[in-house]
């Protein structure tokens, strides 16, 4: 008679599965709550204590940790010495394990949960048992996912046993499962010990969503969400309309969200290829949208729009005048949703907590042979603004300079933005030298450049950028300072009546 050990926290479908096993002649061993519900369903169950000849102890901390369990799982059926050993001791084979673990992930998400409760939800016996079964997958079937019950039953009904390929598939799922589970525990202890960079780093992501392709059609791709950190993100969005998100959609949408989170006033960010083509703030969202749109009427076509206020009918009508891939906002009025949904291919994402900005998460970049890990750039200004020129900025210039400083923080370096009336009018980004970024921003702003202000994510290594800005009619500059040639830039600014502020902090983004 084949024997299955069933002990599950998630009891979805377990009674139906056990009933079918019973019909196929399997003997069932079980523990605790699982044993109780199986017996209530009329299924004959052999208690674990009857197998181990040892009672469950320490409030359930020890029940399956026993040679009669692990010996029955781990011995090789084709090894004469293994067979001889278990027969001599009286260990019977266990041919299947059905188990899922204590809900550690759900426990750490509970509000005001105590450390003691979290510790008690670290499963010990379960991981040991399923790892043992998975190691011996040549002979033992192990199931941790209720979705696999049907697959296993079909093979048992048709062939009398599971295939080796199925057992290997199930074993692979076990080791993925336990690795994820252990990573959550490790991350919890790193958190309470305030360890940002542990000696060995493991990452926990879940919810694989296969994408049609990656950045290009010949690249395979998938999307995983970060465990417990989806508030205010694309992963936590509700899609209200449109086709499935692509790899580039998700990446670009994230770029828009990172910028949007820097602004508290009604703001709209328009993004193309992770970089903004327009950022605008206003007293109303419609004003903000107009500023973002006017920044670059060409590049916004086919782009992504993120708003930090409810999208109403007026904003929706303006958006619908052009083609955009995605619109993201905390909420949409019923009429706005109706208007936007007129276009079949637009993706509409609702993110109620769109301004949630968890700076405790780490910024991770994959490189060949490893990963780079750093704190997120969670500071706008470290110290008071330092005015380094003869002319002091006006209140209006200060307002636009600070708007530009918030904007440039999340633009790919080398980055500069030209701003007027809390709206970008020209953006230069991703250049290999700063004066090219400056000249591109001036070119893109056209005649609007006169009377605008500029924010630069890094210092000016030479005075050439200031010369170009003065010639274009820019009146104020905000930049980190710190160049060996700062004095040359200051002299050039004074010569042209430009006010310049040093922040003492840079915001490179690569």
From TrEMBL:
The IMP cyclohydrolase activity resides in the N-terminal region. One of its GO terms (molecular function) is phosphoribosylaminoimidazolecarboxamide formyltransferase activity. The gene is purH. Pathway: Purine metabolism; IMP biosynthesis via de novo pathway; 5-formamido-1-(5-phospho-D-ribosyl)imidazole-4-carboxamide from 5-amino-1-(5-phospho-D-ribosyl)imidazole-4-carboxamide (10-formyl THF route): step 1/1; Purine metabolism; IMP biosynthesis via de novo pathway; IMP from 5-formamido-1-(5-phospho-D-ribosyl)imidazole-4-carboxamide: step 1/1. Pfam families: AICARFT_IMPCHas, MGS. Its EC number is 2.1.2.3, 3.5.4.10. This is Bifunctional purine biosynthesis protein PurH. It comes from Tissierella simiarum. Belongs to the PurH family. It comes from the Bacteria. Residues 1-144 form the MGS-like domain. It catalyses: (6R)-10-formyltetrahydrofolate + 5-amino-1-(5-phospho-beta-D-ribosyl)imidazole-4-carboxamide = 5-formamido-1-(5-phospho-D-ribosyl)imidazole-4-carboxamide + (6S)-5,6,7,8-tetrahydrofolate; IMP + H2O = 5-formamido-1-(5-phospho-D-ribosyl)imidazole-4-carboxamide. Keywords: Hydrolase, Multifunctional enzyme, Purine biosynthesis, Transferase.
């Amino acid at each position: 008679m084949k024997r299955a050990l069933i002990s599950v926290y998630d009891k979805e479908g377990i009674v139906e599965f056990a009933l079918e096993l019973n019909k196929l002649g399997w003997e069932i061993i079980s523990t605790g709550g699982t044993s109780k519900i199986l017996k209530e369903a009329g299924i004959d169950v052999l208690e674990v204590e009857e197998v181990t000849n040892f009672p469950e102890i320490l409030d359930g901390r020890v029940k399956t940790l026993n040679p009669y369990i692990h010996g029955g799982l781990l011995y090789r059926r084709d090894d004469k010495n293994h067979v001889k050993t278990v027969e001599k001791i009286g260990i019977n084979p266990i041919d299947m394990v059905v188990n899922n673990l204590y809900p550690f992930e759900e426990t750490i998400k509970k509000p005001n949960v105590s450390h003691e409760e979290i510790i008690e939800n670290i499963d010990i016996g379960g991981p040991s048992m399923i790892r043992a079964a998975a190691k011996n997958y040549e002979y033992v079937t192990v199931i941790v996912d209720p979705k696999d019950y049907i697959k296993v039953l079909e093979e048992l009904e048709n062939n009398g046993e599971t295939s080796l390929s199925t057992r290997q598939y199930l074993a692979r799922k076990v080791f993925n499962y336990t690795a994820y589970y252990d990573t959550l525990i490790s991350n919890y202890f790193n958190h309470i010990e305030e360890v940002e960079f542990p000696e060995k780093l493991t990452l926990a992501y879940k919810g694989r969503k296969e994408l049609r392709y990656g950045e290009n059609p010949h690249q395979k791709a998938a999307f995983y969400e970060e465990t417990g950190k989806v508030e205010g993100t694309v992963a936590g969005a509700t899609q209200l309309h449109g086709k499935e998100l692509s790899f580039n959609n998700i990446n670009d949408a994230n770029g828009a969200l990172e910028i949007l989170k820097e602004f508290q006033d009604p703001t709209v960010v328009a993004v193309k290829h992770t970089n903004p083509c327009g950022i605008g703030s206003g007293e109303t969202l419609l004003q903000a949208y107009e500023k973002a749109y006017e920044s670059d009427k060409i590049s916004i076509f086919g782009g992504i729009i993120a708003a930090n206020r409810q999208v109403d009918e007026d904003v929706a009508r303006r958006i619908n005048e052009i083609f955009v891939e995605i619109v993201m906002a905390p909420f949409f009025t019923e009429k706005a949703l109706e208007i936007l949904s007129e276009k079949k291919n637009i993706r509409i994402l609702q993110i109620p907590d769109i301004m949630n900005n968890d700076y405790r998460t780490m910024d991770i970049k994959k490189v060949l042979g490893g990963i780079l890990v750093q704190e997120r750039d969670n500071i706008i200004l470290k110290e008071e603004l330092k005015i380094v020129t003869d002319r002091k900025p006006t209140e209006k210039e200060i307002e636009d300079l600070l708007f530009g400083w918030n904007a440039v923080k999340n633009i790919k370096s080398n980055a500069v933005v030209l701003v007027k009336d809390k709206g970008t009018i020209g953006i230069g980004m991703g250049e290999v030298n700063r004066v090219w970024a400056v000249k591109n921003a001036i070119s893109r702003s056209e005649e609007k450049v006169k009377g605008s202000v500029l924010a630069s994510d890094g210092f000016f290594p030479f005075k050439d950028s200031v010369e170009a800005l003065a010639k274009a009619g820019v009146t104020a500059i905000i930049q980190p300072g710190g160049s060996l040639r700062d004095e040359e830039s200051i002299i050039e600014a004074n010569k042209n009546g430009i006010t310049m502020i040093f922040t003492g902090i840079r915001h490179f983004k690569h």
